[in-house]
Amino acid sequence: MASEEAGRIIDLYQRKAQDWIESRARAGLFEKPWLERFRSLLPPAGPILDLGCGSAEPMAAYLIGLGHPVVGVDSSPAMIDVCRKHFPGQEWIVADMRTLALRRQFSGILAWDSFFHLGHDDQRRMFPLFREHAAPNAALMFTSGPAHGEAIGSFSGEPLYHASLDAAEYRSLLDRSGFRVVSHIMEDPDCGGHTVWLAQLI
């Protein structure tokens, strides 16, 4: 059942794009302290790859406003249409992050509230992809669950799939891909209970 819900994620966000945009706007930029930690590892105006960028508001918008070029990737054409309308000077790509191959490298890679919609094996396969798109000393920041498992939440009245590996496996995958953990907080009370990983390529 969980695997079926995982397979419905792309369709759900496409159909419910406007609902997501409205709910995200209400939440505000509660991620700002983490974005500042992420930015502290980047060169000035370093380019950023945002995987699962949604409508670009508010996270990519914040980074763009601080002078970082952003390449945003999302599986929802409706979301990408909004990005292109509001930020035409940036690059927005409709794609599944699991098969991304841009043949470019970035100073920073974000997978915030997106990577955790992938199943366990798909998450494991993302780490070489992160590495392929990481410039020397690149920062990587993503959110996960607090422990190994799967969970079905709800969005706009429909099931919403999440999965997580355990912390030890994330550390191992990061290490094998050449990243060191800079900061990791489980269920950060100052960030809406998010479990956050910030790493840097070494």
TrEMBL record:
Q: State the SUPFAM superfamilies in the record.
A: S-adenosyl-L-methionine-dependent methyltransferases (SSF53335)
List the GO molecular function terms.
methyltransferase activity
Q: Which Pfam families match?
A: Methyltransf_25 (PF13649)
Keywords from the UniProt entry = Methyltransferase, Transferase
Every Methyltransferase domain range:
48-136
Q: Which GO terms describe its biological process?
A: methylation
Write down the Gene3D superfamilies for this protein, in alphabetical order.
Vaccinia Virus protein VP39
| Protein name in UniProt | Methyltransferase
